[in-house]
Amino acid sequence: MLPYGRQSISAQDIEAVADVMRGDWLTTGPFVAAFEDAIGRLSGGHHAVSATSGTAALHMAYAAAGIGHGDEVITTPMTFIATASGASMLGAKVRFADVDEDTALINPAAVSALATERTRVIAAVDYAGQPADYDTLNEIAAAVGALTLADAAHSIGGSFQGRPVGSLADLTTFSFFPTKNLTTGEGGALVAKDALLAQRAHEFHFIGLVRDPTRFQIRDEGPWHQEVQEFGLNYRLTDIASALGLAQLTRLSDFKRRRAEITSMYNDLLSSVEGVITPAQREGADPVWHLYPLRVLDDRRREVFERMRADGIGVQVNYMPVYWHPVYANAGYRRGMCPNAEAFYKQELSLPIFPDLSDAQVERVVESLTRALR
């Protein structure tokens, strides 16, 4: 089965991990600090905190923002559930704003219609790898005193009008799952423009531990002292994972280039194929194409999915609208609230895309798709 995504691991990646395993640190050590510094520099020079997953990074972001009961978070339904669930688990009410019908990126007008004085965070998703409209979202957030959050699980290494992903919103989260643009095995990171938000995220992911003596509330202990002032979790990344991440970062530009080549090849080969719509690209966006989200028309998505899977092509669907999941449906969320997202989901089919995908394999995917559409 040709997968829809696959990690690219080199001999240098393996040696980087092996070097760490020969050393003194396996968990949180110098490679974690170096990896966080590299992610921060890639993101415009802001503060970075690594994490065990992209889901953990989102939980950290909402915790750092102080999300709790009575707060509202506006986000998109066209995403993996973790974009919303981190806020829900902290007690917030999640409100879903519809997406643009061509890009599946959150629609700022839909966000504006939902924003109130109770809105604490507006969370967008860089669907398929291209940044959302953060300039407009930042204006909406500022008007109600909210923060913006970029779920950039798909878009590390991308930019908008020359500004890197990681610098476009108040908070940005990344995922380093194997199918993402670079991998640490499992892993993620949070980037914050504000130092206090970064500190809060760091302490939350470090079990809540405070180690700064100037902030201690208990002042009669010895030099070993550390204390917890707010609850946190152990979301710490390891030196082993960070070494892999640092090695992968050296090839991120090559990954980006190859993903763009594959996308362009798909676009060309599918330009004359009837019954499908190829992905749209925002003006000003320089995406890292994490997904190739084809749209299959005439209610044929499932048929095409099953035929291509039977043909050995591991197509995927990204994503079912978040509020369709029983955990939200059982809480009173109803289908129909975001018609563009639901229409996009009904048609979306992710074709294989990863750096090691060959031109011949791209042609094989298109041939399989063409047969499935007959």
UniProtKB/TrEMBL annotation:
<dbReference type="Pfam" id="PF01041">
    <property type="entry name" value="DegT_DnrJ_EryC1"/>
</dbReference>
<dbReference type="InterPro" id="IPR015424">
    <property type="entry name" value="PyrdxlP-dep_Trfase"/>
</dbReference>
<keyword id="KW-0032">Aminotransferase</keyword>
<keyword id="KW-0808">Transferase</keyword>
<feature type="modified residue" description="N6-(pyridoxal phosphate)lysine">
    <location>
        <position position="180"/>
    </location>
</feature>
<dbReference type="GO" id="GO:0030170">
    <property type="term" value="F:pyridoxal phosphate binding"/>
</dbReference>
<protein>
    <submittedName>
        <fullName>Aminotransferase class V-fold PLP-dependent enzyme</fullName>
    </submittedName>
</protein>
<keyword id="KW-0663">Pyridoxal phosphate</keyword>
<dbReference type="GO" id="GO:0008483">
    <property type="term" value="F:transaminase activity"/>
</dbReference>
<dbReference type="InterPro" id="IPR015422">
    <property type="entry name" value="PyrdxlP-dep_Trfase_small"/>
</dbReference>
<dbReference type="InterPro" id="IPR015421">
    <property type="entry name" value="PyrdxlP-dep_Trfase_major"/>
</dbReference>
<dbReference type="GO" id="GO:0000271">
    <property type="term" value="P:polysaccharide biosynthetic process"/>
</dbReference>
<dbReference type="InterPro" id="IPR000653">
    <property type="entry name" value="DegT/StrS_aminotransferase"/>
</dbReference>
<comment type="similarity">
    <text>Belongs to the DegT/DnrJ/EryC1 family.</text>
</comment>
<feature type="active site" description="Proton acceptor">
    <location>
        <position position="180"/>
    </location>
</feature>
